[in-house]
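We emphasize that the prediction below concerns an isolated chain of 383 residues; any contacts that depend on oligomerization or on bound cofactors are therefore not represented. The input was used exactly as deposited, without trimming of termini.
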Amino acid sequence: MKILLFFHGGSKNRGCEAIVRTAVDLIKETNPDAIVNLASFDPISDQGIPNIDLIYDASDGNVSKYSLAGFVAALQYKFFKNEIPFLRAKHRKLIDLIPNHDLFLSVGGDNYCYGEQPWLYEMDRLIKNAGKKLVLWGASIGQEDLSKRKLQDLESFDLILARESLTFEILKNNGLNQVQLIADGAFLLEKKLLDLPSGWQEGNTIGINYSPLVFAKNPDSKAAILQLIHYILDTTKYTIALLPHVIIDGNDDYKILQELENEINSDRVVLLPNDLNATHYKGYISKMQFFIGARTHATIAAYSCLVPTMVLGYSVKSKGIAMDIFGEEKLVLDIKELSDSNLLISKWEEMLAQESEIKAHLTNKIPEIQKLSRKAVTYLNDL
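Result of the prediction step, given as a token string:
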């Protein structure tokens, strides 16, 4: 059995890295003879992931208008509004991998949250036309994300694994009967402990992750986050560790966290480096007393290490994950609420006051969530 993980953007997004790491480990645990390959848009960033047999470069091809493929694509679109020749030329590297694999795992669980994606639809169609099995691994999709065209694409999948109950219910209610409920594989990600940096107070450090994505959606949120950090520094003795989790040009947590560090200018603020992998960041998170995070997989790392967590700006995935853990959207703030510094401070105080109750609940619940994560490979084997 040759399996290809595809639609992976690369491991500079540590959440994407966590998904691939845990997917490969789960498959190899129960199918040690399976060949598991990865098609990546940034293959150099994935070199440190263990247990992958081959990593392929699936980055976009350059479709020159002066090439035959580019000329045909331009004519087809101009006269017939047919985008397929262009999509095929652009994604030729991925298309060439189809004959060599039996089972395809689409690991870009967020891809269906960003409007129409004709390139996804065309690749899925080619995979199914070749008689291959197609699985959507760990998806999150909101009702507002669905369209007729997108539903037609989702219907072509042999198996859809929804990583939280909100997505599961939405897809079932839209007539998709091949959907199963799991939890995100990142709940199973191992953690690796590194030496603690200078200024870190063991047992007395709070982690904060803030992202340019949140800033773009609500620019006033940055000032509110700064006010929250100043409040914590003024009213407690905690050290604050700023933790990046996505380090991609144009979407780089590290750069905006550097700005926060410079504006705060306190020896009780530590900025973690930007060259660590997902297991290292999880190791640091496991040593934190509390975590406040914008990136979903950074908050998953915190939840799975039993760290009380506040989520900055929910999507269907973060909302659904919190619901599955707590039965409510506990300490999950809407993107529009993040410019309200008083609300942020109030939620921080709520988390501080409920520390022991939250830890006790996570201690009981996370093993159940991790069992749900492992169900993914059971459904895969059944298929």
